[in-house]
Amino acid sequence: MTASLPPEVQRVFDSFVTSELTTIDREGHPVSWPVTPFYRPGDPCIDVTTGVGYPRKAEHALANPKVALLFSDPSGSGMPDAPQVLVQGTAEVDDQDLEHNRERYRRESAEKLPASARLTPPKALRRLFDWHDTHIYVHVRPERVYVWPRGDPTQEPRLFDARIEEVRSGHDEEPPAEHVPAEGGATAWDDRVAQLGRRCTTAVLSLVAPDGFPFSLRVPIAVDEGEKRIRLGRGALGVPVQPGLACITAHEHDPRFHWQPTFQVRGDLVEAESGWALAPHALVGRLESPPDSSFQKYRLRLGRMLRYRSRAKRELRGRQPR
Q1: CA distances from 275 to 100, 227, 235 (A)
Q2: SS3 sequence, 171-224?
Q3: From CA 162, how far away is CA 5, in angstroms rounded?
Q4: Running along the chain, 322 residues long, what does each successive block of 10 average in pLDDT?
Q5: Is the pTM of this model over 0.90?
Q6: Where in the chain are the domains?
Q7: Quick one: DSSP state of residue 149?
Q8: Distance (Å, rounded) from C-alpha 142 to C-alpha 48?
Q9: Spelled out in words, what is the top-level CATH class assigned to the domain 2-319?
Q10: Is 268 helix (H, G, I), strand (E, B) or coil?
């Protein structure tokens, strides 16, 4: 359906450096992480990737193909007044020809992120980094697209739906999915949540809508340290809020994508007199300040890259013909 979308929306898919991919894990938790979208106007799908060393996003999409892609951060896109766009779609995991995927990823990454491409090793050493560039593609075929003008979540979104009968009837005819209730239990809290409140005024809220598709939107947030909750700003339109599992993802990147700290809080979406809030149960990652030098950047990433390399090597060995 992308070819029938307004040119401004297709430009968002093509120009944004990041989008937030939301998958649903086996326990029903929505899980959102920033990814780089690959799209050309008129393509039937929006493609994203995940490395073989960290394949969880692909594993989730394989088990439950209902996913969402949110385009909410225009940094580096050249579209300062871009709309906020949510794509709810069906995912197809492409991991059959990893060598082809690797070459495609190298080519498309160089086109999308030319500044980062200049940091790649010379061809003579590139084979040593095959594990790093070997990616699994996830093709997201849009089923429903929400567009908030000028990125303002308090405005009524426009809806574009591939299911024509639903548009004609004026309501969603997707049968309701089984709703996973809130977990309850102990609250997870440390200085990272307070840091989130100090650094970020907005973050991406993700939940599972009644039709079983993830739903994400960048909304205002405020950290309530006394109540140990992350409060959501009022006035966002179109969000199917209900008590249950949710997550908040905060990330930022410089326009050239040289750094990208990411922090995620998973927990229960709860309603109180003061409005909706997230009660944290798990904290993943941290919002580091941008490194001052390339040496610092590589030092910070070294431990994580070694873990990814170990997992990637195991995955690649397991896929070799015997």
Answers
A1: 49, 13, 10
A2: CCCCCCCCCCCCCCCCCCCCHHHHHHHHHCCEEEEEEECCCCCEEEEEEEEEEE
A3: 10
A4: 91 95 96 96 95 91 97 91 96 94 92 71 64 90 95 93 48 65 87 89 95 95 94 87 94 64 92 91 77 50 60 66 44
A5: no
A6: 2-319
A7: G
A8: 13
A9: mainly beta
A10: strand
